[in-house]
Amino acid sequence: MAAMSALDSELSLRVLNVECWSNCCERYVTDDPRSAGFGRLRVAVGGATGDEIIRVFDVWVTGGPYYGEMMGCPVRHWRIIDAYPEGEEPLYWKWPAE
Predict the structure, then answer these.
(1) pTM greater than 0.85 (yes/no)
(2) In a 3-state reduction of DSSP, which class is residue 68?
(3) Fewer CB atoms < 10 Å away: N or C end of the chain?
């Protein structure tokens, strides 16, 4: 698998899809991003040569579980908690494999 550093300094990013998860009471995939406290983004990272590699970025709302509508959907601050090549296991959010 190609390393991002091999793509050169002119990187382009293209978000392929976002999977939103609720992380309050029970963990589950949600269609409503307003209730998400965790997200998994598949991103195509490309260079000037046209080569692309796929990376997965896991993001988490700071401050613990996010209760979405129960809290009135307040503004969230997101933190990248994991980044890894597509097809590899995440280091942190292994649900539902745990």
Answers:
(1) no
(2) helix
(3) C
